């Protein structure tokens, strides 16, 4: 009773066995259809596929608030969510600035990104791309690990004059663990001492083989400073995105993840949420981590008030009961009573988790994988 085979679980979930095997492989577990998996793994899978878990022993407790799986005909194309990773000072924020045509770097204290910014960029072809900028500081690696779980594509920024550094390698490992495709942006190619070829060679040591060297990883030479190579980078992102066939159902109760959150003087608890599916609307009642709330206002990445936010859209949400944590899940629920119930349940679960073993960042990462 403590274990179940992949095929049995697939039958109960009315999913294809092969899809479960694939999902397990992404989680780092290689199993065949007839192999048994333990209960924790089974629960993760069930959640991953958006089903509810009914515990026989604990029948009135539902883990996860995800509704039924979205029927294929409800799915519509959504923008890719791209996370920019790389070593400190290799130019992540500058690159994002250049892509947005703004200047965030000069407004940062000491030029070190202290939070994850989320922005949308429109390409010349009219496509929208959602970008997450991650902090480069060593101390934020945990947050960065969480940042990968909502990500479709990772841009690995490597400064051509500096090469592969500890956090570059860390980012490579996070990306591999998350099973997310990577595009390498070789930055600062304007510098006289830049040596892009050396970077391509060094990447081989980490089993990243760029197209030029016969591999499958796309790479592009850019200069965030001189603004060169940017259209090429955007093209490559869209090429990768098309291969991924990214979709979501926009016409359902919203689900999303906290990208960053803080207590704001005057505005109270504020969270930047990346909507994954559904459409978040003013007035929606939600649970966010172990907090709850009602959407009082939403502000987009351009600082404008918006009434709705669909899949892959980052928005600042006002109206929270408290400050959630980065990576926490937002789920829209029917009413406030239900919100309080779920929030209390999650709080209880969080306490339980803290008193048992601390999860590794890898676990964090795939526990929220969609
Ligand atoms: P953290 O957020 O601290 O990890 O840094 P970051 O990766 O966001 O780097 P940031 O964009 O702050 O850039 C670091 C420094 O490199 C700044 O002084 C930039 O002006 C400089 N820089 C960024 N891109 C380029 C480039 O393409 N060429 C040159 N020459 N300098 C660049
Ligand atoms: Mg930065």
From TrEMBL:
Domain Tr-type G: 77-247
Chain sites annotated for binding GTP: 86-93, 133-137, 187-190
Annotated localization: Cytoplasm
Functional note: One of the essential components for the initiation of protein synthesis. Protects formylmethionyl-tRNA from spontaneous hydrolysis and promotes its binding to the 30S ribosomal subunits. Also involved in the hydrolysis of GTP during the formation of the 70S ribosomal complex.
Annotated family: Belongs to the TRAFAC class translation factor GTPase superfamily. Classic translation factor GTPase family. IF-2 subfamily.
Protein's name in the database: Translation initiation factor IF-2
Organism: Sphingobium indicum (strain DSM 16413 / CCM 7287 / MTCC 6362 / UT26 / NBRC 101211 / UT26S)
Gene: infB
